Amino acid sequence: MGVITYSQEFTSAVAPTKMFKALVLDSHNVIPKIVPGSIKSVEFSEGDGGVGSIKQTNFSESSHIKYTKHKINALDVENFYCKYTLIESDIKFEKIDFVVYEVKFVALDNGGCICKMTGEYHSKDSAELKEDGIKQGKDKAMGLYKTVEEYLLANLDACA
Fold this sequence. Notes:
- This protein is of the alpha+beta class.
- The chain contains 3 helices and 7 strands, in the order βααββββββα.
- The protein has helices at about 15-25, 25-35, 130-155; strands at about 5-10, 40-45, 55-60, 65-75, 80-90, 95-105, 115-125.
- α1 packs across α2 (about 25-35) and α1 crosses α3.
């Protein structure tokens, strides 16, 4: 099994507490409200959001994907850190066995934060993963983060 790891980060004007709450702790409520055209709902199929919980994201009818399930592996609220694994989807991945994501928000002196994201794509057997496919997923994640940031900047009371 091969592993391709990517890392990316961006600076946000939003405090890490708010970004973490919107994208991790309260994402099941916040994300469908912010992007209802893309994500229909996010719900827990197991647990309540803590370590070991399984979160299912249900996408809109126009999406090429219907759902994904992620298992929360680690959650450190005080340090704004979450690690989770993509464990299931309605799309059959021919080359990917599973994907592990890590997200951390680091406070900046100006009140904003740096959002650090890492993804580990674990391939099946000796399958070769294409960077283009990974880049598309990476770009979608970055787009969601930016959309959440814009929402939080426009709605100062959200995720307070």
